[in-house]
Amino acid sequence: MKLKKDRFEKILKTFTITFFSLSTLFLIYAVLFANKALPNTYFANLNVAGKNQNQISNVVDARIDSFKDRKLSILVGGKIINHSPQELGITYDSNTTKQKILDITFTENPLEGYKNRLRALFIITRIAPNYSIDHSKLNNILDKHLDELEKAPINATIGFVDGEPQIRNEQRGIVVDRSKLLSDLVGRLDNFSPEPITAVYIEDRPKIRSEKAQAAFEKVSSLNNQRIILSHKFDTWSLSGETLSGLLEFYPGGMVNGQYLSLRVNSIPLVILDINFKDKEEPVLQVQLNEEKVSNFIDDMAIVINKPTVDANLEFDGVKVSKFTPAQDGQALDRELTHSLILNAVSIDNINAESKVAIKLPVDVTRAKIVNEEINSLGIKEVIASGVSYFAGSIANRAFNIGLGSQLINGTVVAPGETFSFNKLVGPVSAQQGFKEAYVISKGRTVLDDGGGICQVSTTVFRAALNAGLPVEARTAHAYRVSYYEQKGFAPGFDATIWSPTVDLKFRNDTNHHILVQATVNTTQSKLQIDIYGTSDGRRVELSDPVLSNRKPAPEPLYQDDPTLAKGVVKQVDWAAEGLTSVFTRKVFRGDELLIDEAFKSNFRPWQAVYLVGTGS
User: Fold this and answer.
1) Where are the transmembrane segments (predicted)?
2) Is 583 among the domain residues?
3) Which of 23, 46, 264, 431 lies 20 to 30 Å from 481 when distance is taken between CA atoms?
4) Whole-number pLDDT of residue 141
5) Where are the beta strands (DSSP E) in 93-219?
């Protein structure tokens, strides 16, 4: 019994000595590392154990300053991309980094944090630097370098071939694994490592396969048979075929405005742009009208339709109106209602929709306060008719000549019983008159000559006289069809050429009041409008559609040398047109009385496409 007691006392004594020895050692250890980084503490890949706050601060500043401007290399195929962290949008925060080291390893009281101190004897603590990444800047730089090296996937979609819709098959892509690249970059930033990063390519599958585009294809095929005509007065717009399909957008099912989901998490916006689908969950190609494209289409129509309200003003010198501002009612396209009308007409989901829909555009009108009859005694109080033509694609000199010719006839007053003569008003079409050289048809060739484009003016005057029901005393059709006079849906035959002094355009004022001819050139719309003002006597005009016959195909294209164009430049100045005979009739009534019953015949020879080939220096 005594032996056991002695042994117990010996063990207790040994334990006591050991406990106090360890306590002493721990106290010494705690005192030695008070206000210093604990053992096994690493800042990135640098051991900072035993360093005080000032030393740690110096180490952090030195490491960050030396690394932030150092070039990092990214190897992509055979290309090397070199950028410093700062250039890549990485910003190191030295103050926050220092504080993080202090929070983890430092304590002012040597007896506090004993668990962490004991842990530090056996476990390594690695502290990464604090930094932020401007992902937008980083992605822009990567995109700039990688775009030419990557091949993005292409979804199956709907395209057009010779005016017919077809499914365009999907194409697989190959892109750099951005997630791995970012992970490798973070590893280099955490350890201040200049080791090059090798980019890895991965296959990028399209979201939409061709078999998932069949339903959309059927909808577009149905739309391809639709024709929507929107009109206001003389102006018309057509939505059909590729024009109509150009307003569509295709997107994977589930996406809205180019994204799958948009929400906020703790006031931070989160946008999901991409989802990897399992085979059984692959999305179907969806089709809908693109709101922005429809809005832009409406904007284009509004530019033509919208007009300010203008009060009438007239200054007459006894021969010609030197200043005339006709009363103009303001008008504005109702954009919201137009948008609804288009949406209702475009039947994407109705395979059996009407093939042709006519829409009269809704236009709000604001009346002028001072109207025409209040400012003159000539009877020039209202528009009795107008004529329009278009000249899109005209060279600068041709457009200039159209403007000059319009000025020369603008403001012309024709008294009752008098005849309007185009050549008498315009005079010689020559350089002395101010006309510039533009392309004309002369002796079967397209050549530069003074006044090219003047027939645009005479043609438009002819159309206005036709619509006014005034007797046309002289009119000659062109020898060849001219593409400008068939723009915006005009049929062949509604043209009038002049060739001073022999070939003229004339019409007579057989009303009881003066008439005024006004010309307006809109260069933005490439549109010429002739308005004839007077007092309506109730006459009504019926113009038939032209009967086209005796068709002859266009000859092969013609290529002509042109020293005014640089060598090697090829410019098309005329477009192929078949030859034909056009005949339309006009009947003019006043009440039940038939005033005019006539036919206008035009014999157009076939005309080839003409290309000018530059031979100049």
Assistant:
1) 12-32
2) yes
3) 431
4) 86
5) 125-127, 131-133, 157-161, 164-168, 173-176, 197-198, 201-204
